[in-house]
Amino acid sequence: MNFIVLLVDMSTTVMSDAIVMPSTESQQLATKLIAETKVEFVKCESCGLIEECTPEYINRIRERYQGKWICGLCSEAVKYEIIRSKRLITTDEAMARHMAFCKKSILSGQKTDPTVDLIDAMKQILRRSLDSPRRVRSTPCSPVRTMDDSVGVGLARSESCIPDVTYVVELEEMMSDQNGE
Q1: Roughly what angle, to the nearest 10 degrees, separates helices 91-107 and 72-84?
Q2: Over the stretch 13-62, which tens digit does the pLDDT of each residue have?
Q3: How far is CA 10 from CA 7, 13, 55, 71, 92, in A?
Q4: Which residues of 13-52 are buried (b: 16+ CB within 10 A; e: fewer)?
Q5: Mean pLDDT score of the chain, rounded to an integer?
Q6: What residue segments make up the domains of the chain, in order of their start?
Q7: What are the tens digits of pLDDT across the range 68-92?
Q8: CA distance 13 to 10
Q9: Which of 18, 58, 76, 158 sits between 20 and 30 A of 173, alpha carbons compared?
């Protein structure tokens, strides 16, 4: 069996044309490409969470946050700090506030696992987004807007799949009735 293999670098640009090669050769190539991808463990300077990332990604984050590595959750917290501030603040200021908050909670004497903290923080973000005002959309694919027609912040809610499930069940029942089952 043959497979078509596209060679793509980490920035998702195509490096060469598609080629056809035997499946064993494509598996060897994939294994080689995975082995060549270097990853490093890096610790968030804010909350202490350790993540596994490529050096390129680490450098991009450090460029964005003035040489400091912060995890994805802390990055979102910094963005939230900017949004919730009553006056316009810089990313540096928001990051300093968030780092002060993290240090205060670390110094409070509560020794907790950063992974558990991550899970708790994600639950809190989800609750906040679900408690936020409903978004107005004409269709599920249209841009999310608030009631006053301003761009909203938070997670957009998906629509229920239960009507689709009901439709499938009804369709299966109709087909079984037609087949005399």
Answers
A1: 120
A2: 444 455 555 666 767 776 766 667 788 999 999 888 889 999 999 999 99
A3: 10, 8, 11, 20, 29
A4: eeeeeeeeeeeeebeeeeeeeeeeeeeeebebbbbebebe
A5: 71
A6: 1-37, 39-150
A7: 999 988 999 999 999 988 889 999 9
A8: 8
A9: 158
